[in-house]
## 1
Amino acid sequence: MKDIFYMKKAIKLAKKGSLTTSPNPNVGCIIVNNNIIVGSGWHKKTGMKHAEIYALKTSGEKAKGATAYITLEPCSHFGKTPPCCVALTKYGISRVVIATLDPNPKVSGNGVKWLKKHGILVTIGTLSKESIKINKGFFQRMTTGIPWIKLKLASSIDGRTALNNGKSKWITSDKARHDVQHVREKSDAIISSSETILFDNPLLTVRNTNNNDNNQKLLKHSKTFLKQPIRVIIDSKNRITPSHKCIKQPGLLFLIRIHSDNNIWPSHIKQIILNNKSKKIDLIDLVKMLAKYQINNILIEAGPSLSSSFLKLNIINELIIYIAPKILGNYAKPLFFLENYSNLSDVPQFKFEKITQIGKDLKLILTKHNSS
Amino acid sequence: MKDIFYMKKAIKLAKKGSLTTSPNPNVGCIIVNNNIIVGSGWHKKTGMKHAEIYALKTSGEKAKGATAYITLEPCSHFGKTPPCCVALTKYGISRVVIATLDPNPKVSGNGVKWLKKHGILVTIGTLSKESIKINKGFFQRMTTGIPWIKLKLASSIDGRTALNNGKSKWITSDKARHDVQHVREKSDAIISSSETILFDNPLLTVRNTNNNDNNQKLLKHSKTFLKQPIRVIIDSKNRITPSHKCIKQPGLLFLIRIHSDNNIWPSHIKQIILNNKSKKIDLIDLVKMLAKYQINNILIEAGPSLSSSFLKLNIINELIIYIAPKILGNYAKPLFFLENYSNLSDVPQFKFEKITQIGKDLKLILTKHNSS
């Protein structure tokens, strides 16, 4: 019970890094000596100290004989920082409680082995689900090579995204559209299509989220920590030009193409050629490539064609649908273009995860039918 | 503050009649003498005593000099029961607090006038909104001549009601379908179409709701109180025959037609001829006719054609949509057949009133955009 109590606190601490640690996971650490919390820390940003180091430094002498509660297995290899396992022994920690092992198959279990070898008592699995939940993208990328993929949509209650004449501004309310900024800021990359750019000419950046109380708290240590997601535009026909708003907007942008062109592109634009036999951009290749760029969380913001292509591949982990209390009718544009199913058992299934009212609209979060 | 406190109790009592009082409204009454509740009552069923009479009888002598809290203006005319106003004075009540006036324009205000004339102090308007809310159908029928109209639908998250081949069994889960029984039992009439009867051959009755705890409580005084809603089938082409399941099933059923036929119908079937110049059944005429049958609450359970016709008339007070976490795609059948709108400002708008999860599905209750 005590272990759960302190691990909950460590997870709460870990969440403070939710907007800033990626590609690293969120990690929190609490050091407890004789039922007194003597130190705590959390990981802020890649290249900065790990949670354990902050916690040990605040504990000082009091770490001797204490228990460390860590939301993720401590590292035992020299990366950008010296290994946390060494620090834990150096400070005299006698027991380590770990929520879950490191999912990186190259290092998973090594920290535990190291600690045990150095006479430290190790408990594994306390609130493991919760710890994995706050690092879904990191865990999925490490274990499958594919980032966590969210698909964002906005529709009427009868599942329509635009009128027959294309008008869709605006089906949902200001508040719902502002909420999208918060979904974006939790993403490492936003995938969109050249169709969306040609039609809407969006910036695809995170804007005006600093006035949010929670973000103020998360970012108060340094506003510069909030990073813009990488914008990824699928442009197989080279239709995007240097004059589009998203191109002029600073911030890394990947143009995913089959062939490069001879335009002069700003330095923050990177043409990535994804060619294969089919002469089409393979979306699985794309998300695997993004995983290699250490992208944990992808947000898809596109029209029904690209959204449907991802849906058919069965790689959407989360659907985020903003629903306005309007009815657009049968002439309006559908949410998805799918096949003509013969049986209800064949259709894509999800499960409702979280329902909130955002202003006049509903925000539905659904997860893959079989994902936990 | 005390008035609100006691009126809340009276409204809670009134709700006990929610499945049984129609066509009468739900009414509760609390009698308070010197800060002590000395009597209480609620209306159970048309023809039975009014709430005030029960409350006065339980108070007896203690009603003298007491305050009566009544959720609706007491009657002053001799109807099926002697007027409550007379009883209130006879028992020596000195003050009456009324949530709201009787909406029936023929009698509204008469009770208050009578009480004042007999030296009783009258306060009007305590929790009036709450009192109207528990009698929405009654108030709307009395003030507009049109019952409260609910439209029930079931769809996928992309707003589809069936696959292209017509398969719709079942999009939603058992639990959601069972919940529909509770929606039916709160209705005085269910409107459906001959299309639905020919395709699904449903009974359109309330079934298996007595195992519900709340209903057990509501009905414990007498199970016979739960009445079946009147089934109303729009059958302009005389396609329903005596062999359909809903016809064989006992319980009043109105066949709404343009011409009668020569079939021999069971005595619980009533052919109602609604003819007009257009040779079509006018849905406004239909609901006004049902209001004359003292129908307070109508539930529409039909396919997209009839549902859309009601929607276009702008007389739907409440939309009840069960949404399954499935995606049926663009080939599947739409929720509504409407016009090809040119502007988003022209589309039907509602507002989300209540969202609940029923098993795997969502139940959305929406109300008319401008209704309170």
Note: The domain at 1-135 of chain A is CATH 3.40.140.10 (Cytidine Deaminase; domain 2).
## 2
Amino acid sequence: MQIAILLYDRFTALDAIGPYETLGLLPGAEVVFVAERTGLHRSDKGSLGLVVDAALSDVTAPDVLVVPGGPGQTALMEDGPVHEWIRAVDAGTTWTTSVCTGSLVLAAAGLLKGRRATCHWLALDQMPALGVEPSGERVVFDGKYVTAAGVSSGVDMGLALAGRIAGDFVAQTIQLGIEYDPQPPYDAGAPEKAPAEVVAALRDHGRSILAGKRWRDEAVTER
Amino acid sequence: MQIAILLYDRFTALDAIGPYETLGLLPGAEVVFVAERTGLHRSDKGSLGLVVDAALSDVTAPDVLVVPGGPGQTALMEDGPVHEWIRAVDAGTTWTTSVCTGSLVLAAAGLLKGRRATCHWLALDQMPALGVEPSGERVVFDGKYVTAAGVSSGVDMGLALAGRIAGDFVAQTIQLGIEYDPQPPYDAGAPEKAPAEVVAALRDHGRSILAGKRWRDEAVTER
């Protein structure tokens, strides 16, 4: 079972690593990182460099496609080689998936028309213009399309999909293997739960904050 | 504020990326991946390659040290350049931290003697021989030493430490930024919670399973 994770410059690392660390533990899984060009790709914050081993033409029939999100997603919204590749491999996938703003790329490639899907909460409002019905759920299954909410939700998506692919025993073994017994120190992980000033900070300066830049009382140069 | 994440061959990716994606969003954070040699390092499953930009000698005064775990930890238990570096930079850190079996490396370097610390649940029994009092808690603070349980716990550790460093507002903003509102599909993330056969599978074949190899009805060649 080949699992292809699409990368591009300025991806968000955890978007890619959540599915990698869950789906990659499925029996028989072979994970391949794929991009328009092979070699070094820098994440959104620049300090992490991941090496891509396969070009688009090297990966023609993955069983599972994963498209992570990140600031670099905005450069992937026009039709071109990446969209053509996504459409071509999607024709043969068992599951086509995304994390965070990766769903906007799937939608722009035309795969999510008329479907329910999710995205990072700050980008959900971009979905209707792409013909997608936005959902606030953390993981959304619509046929073979599985979309997850922001960044960390790829772990939940990976486990839910692992259960569909290989059954509860395997998925629970993966969960215990990565000791996923989450105990966040705050209950602030969704806009309905976080303090209003926290939601407002991200609405106003999300791009800057998520790029690892300063905020609040410091200079915020980007919105 | 410099955050140094120590890498080595056969690290577990999520161990490193959890703290990266949380502490890396602190105001003024500068993350650097550091290793005995710069360049490509492969994770435990081999399919992920991360590029290390800094050699040990390039990083002399990090404010925060993060040591992730993974199968490659076993090669870092003897004294040598990595232990010398860990001891040298620890003398100046504000926080010295680990995820998963990274705490065994900190312990082997002599930093956790007489302290409470945690580790991946499958490796907790290795701690007493290193002079450490093992704790089953997910995140353990003992002085400036912060250790986290297996793999995914680095996200919780990163958020808890972000709160100590920069206060609740910033930590909650990071949590909402990465939309960390965990909803695992099973309650199987700790050995006390998972079905007995799941715990047994990992006790018997953990090394093979966590390396992304097959298990159960398939050939298990490694224990």
Note: Residues 216-223 of chain A have pLDDT under 50 and may be disordered.
